[in-house]
Amino acid sequence: MKARARIALCGIILVVVGASPAYAANPFKKYCTSLFFTPREAVSKWGREKIGQAKAWMDKIFLSTEGKIKGATKAAAIDPRGEYDGLWVRDNAINAKEVMDNPEIADAYIDWVRGNLKKHTLGGLGEPKFNSDGSPFNKPWGRPQNDGPGYVILRWTEYAEKKAKEGVSLAAHYDSNLDNASLKWYLEYVSHHWNDASFDLWEEEMGQHLHTMIVMQDGLEKGAALAAKVEPGGANSPAVLWYRQQAAEIRRTILENAWDPDRGYLRSTWRHDGGFVHKQEPLDIGAILGLLHTTTNPPVYRFGDEKVMATMAALEAKFSEIYRLNEQWSDLRYRGIAALGRYPEDVFHGGNPWVIATQGAAEYYFKLGEELLGTGKIEITEVNEKFFKRLMNGNPDFRAGRSFDKDSKAFKDVISAIEEKGDGFLSIVRTSTKADGFHAEQIARGYRPGDQGPWVENYVKEALGGDANRSDAGGQWLGAQLLVWNEASFRSTWRARTEFLAKRRRLGR
Q1: Which end of the chain is more exposed for a tag (fewer CB within 10 A), N or C?
Q2: Segments making up each domain of the chain, as ranges
Q3: What would you report as the CA-atom Rg of the chain, rounded to the nearest whole angstrom?
């Protein structure tokens, strides 16, 4: 469509919609944006506007003491049902990463996690959440959740190392004497309990989880590096040797248990040991999120590992199949993008796509692109062939046994496709933006009368007001109205996009 025609059509839409407040949330507004901009331009414009908004809002909510303590946030800032009234250890550690550049927030957050060490909880240091006033939450819940301590170690070590550059002794945060509450307590907990069954990041299934194991492994690695600077005996001290030995054991356990050659993807859970659900198949976006949230060197799995690629392809394929919302992107030209959920059997609010899952997919592709630009080589195997089939629109040139170096046209085509696909995932999120510029927890999956599954009852109730005879294309927002993790995830994803594009420009790829 030529520019003049675009302007004319958008003008007609503006006349029809009018200048009412409803225009801000009207889907035609999003359509007009797409008339003026290419997908990349539309995503870029939206992202540049949103990145500052997300940071300012996160700073404000972490500093606020309205209905909560300073330095931590409720999982959802707008939550009429009260489903997220509390301070989750995992969520706060993930979210805090995006605001720790604010000294006041960083100090308050560390004060909170340090203070939690001496609170009497039912889950010990594996306690998943606290009341909004910071007091222990001692009611029935899915505990322990051992990814929380792993995340806390990551944030606290980052903070301690930064403060050390400002002249603050590392001993102020890590005390080799266990009589004194410090970061060491978290390292001791993880190093002695990593092999225990715990609840997953969705608080539903007990067992050993890839996501949790990856976070704990990275926490022990980072914590051991810091401990080596403080412990008497340094890197050869018993404590440091113990932390590194346990980190190595976690890595070994992951490599021995995660890959399922029959299913062709990394299992999210093994050694199932109870909980509230038992998934029919251990396919879960948590496996990807764990990789995105850690920086172990060398990583347990690279983003370009054939098994990670296969897992990403399996997630895309499954959610493309089960969500009616995704039918609009089923054509190969969309490179396999889809609104992604947590796991296929999910029934919460009808088991819909989640913003953090879909943004996580975008972040994965941007980080994959940056990694491939660094290695300068692409290898297609029987394991990752489906990944490249989706990415490259079914092009038969991208089949098992082929490899491409950085100077080949095929390599450059893959890099371009990765950029396009990452932006495609972000486009899905962009079009579900609320009028206030933020996102709800979930994006409606869609429904047609006659659909079957455990999710249907909840979906009809939540999205259709109980009317099971009405078809629904999906796309509207559901669940908590303002999930803090959404904003942290966006900032992390946008940073990955920025770094990938900058490296691509620098290398001329």
Answers
A1: N
A2: 1-36, 315-509
A3: 23
The model carries a pTM of: 0.91
Partner residues linked to 413 by β-bridges: none
CATH code of domain 315-509: 1.50.10.10
DSSP 24: G
Report d(CA 198, CA 272) in Å as an integer.
Answer: 10
Q: How many CB atoms lie within 10 A of CB 236?
A: 9
Q: Longest Cα pair distance anywhere in the chain, in angstroms?
A: 75
By DSSP bridging, strand 377-379 and strand 265-266 are unpaired
Helices (H), 194-348: 210-227, 238-257, 286-292, 306-322
CA 265 to chain centre: 18
d(CA 92, CA 84) in angstroms, rounded, equals 12
Q: How far apart, in Å, do the first and last CA atoms of the chain sit?
A: 29
Distance of CA 401 to the CA centre of its chain: 32
Closest CA to 266 of 280, 279, 256: 256
Q: How far apart are CA 13 and CA 11, in angstroms?
A: 5
Report which of 366, 357, 291, 348 is spatially closest to residue 318, judged by C-alpha positions.
Answer: 357
| Nearest of 372, 212, 215, 194 to residue 295 by alpha carbon | 215
Q: Which residues, in sequence order, are CB contacts of 175 under 8 Å at separation 6+?
A: 181, 182, 184
Q: Rounded distance, CA 142 to CA 369, Å? A: 37
pLDDT mean for each 10 residues of the chain (509 residues): 37 36 33 48 89 90 92 85 89 96 96 95 96 95 97 98 96 93 97 97 96 98 97 96 98 98 97 82 96 92 98 98 95 92 95 97 98 97 97 95 96 96 95 82 95 95 94 91 91 96 90
Cis peptide before 298 (omega within 30 of 0): yes
Residue with tokens 């980080």: 367
> Would you state the structure tokens that stand for residue 63, as one six-digit string?
């500093």
